[in-house]
Prior knowledge:
Number of helices of chain A: 0
Distance between the termini of chain B: 41 Å
Number of helices of chain B: 0
Structural class of chain B: mainly beta
Distance between the termini of chain A: 36 Å
Radius of gyration of chain B: 14 Å
Number of strands of chain B: 12
Largest sheet of chain A: 7 strands, mixed
Largest interface: A-B, 27 and 25 residues
Radius of gyration of chain A: 14 Å
Shape of chain B: globular
Oligomer: heterodimer
Structural class of chain A: mainly beta
Order of helices and strands of chain B: EEEEEEEEEEEE
Order of helices and strands of chain A: EEEEEEEEEEE
Number of strands of chain A: 11
Strand content of chain A: over 45%
Amino acid sequence: NAGVTQTPKFQVLKTGQSMTLQCAQDMNHEYMSWYRQDPGMGLRLIHYSVGAGITDQGEVPNGYNVSRSTTEDFPLRLLSAAPSQTSVYFCASSYRLGLADYNEQFFGPGTRLTVL
Amino acid sequence: AQTVTQSQPEMSVQEAETVTLSCTYDTSESNYYLFWYKQPPSRQMILVIRQEAYKQQNATENRFSVNFQKAAKSFSLKISDSQLGDTAMYFCAFMKENSGYALNFGKGTSLLVTP
């Protein structure tokens, strides 16, 4: 298994440009989520999904769009990039094991995005 | 919304010594899950230890253990016999039931282990 993969690893955008950060997992996990990490801020939840076709907003959703058409993929779209979106972005996935409400989250390696 | 507070931005410990990282949280939920994640310079997020709120016994994973005080809403991480490879950012995180596995993170504690 490749686990959780993210592309690209690095990206530089100009203000106003749009782009999509890709996230894929090959573990058949139903739960996927996107976080951003800023210096001194920890990780903050942007959007998450509990299954194909189902998404919901996290703590900082403004300026981002998501969709989940397949179990494997959960792309994050920046509609009109702003310097405030300069950050490291992490994708994560997990699954429900039996009746347990918890299972370990598997994180991707992150994408470092700079918006000029 | 749940808030997670890590009051120690930076800490330092000598190799083989013991260090405790603090975490407090605020929630009205009765059942939830707490985690400590490690982030080394490679940027990869690594689960260190987890605790289910309904369990009274403190979780332990080898050199890592927690002191979970539910009434005080406190969840500290103790690292025994510190090793150079423990140098990393450590994040405390909270997850409530039926939340889509969404995590609320603290701002992190940067731990430096010195020879």
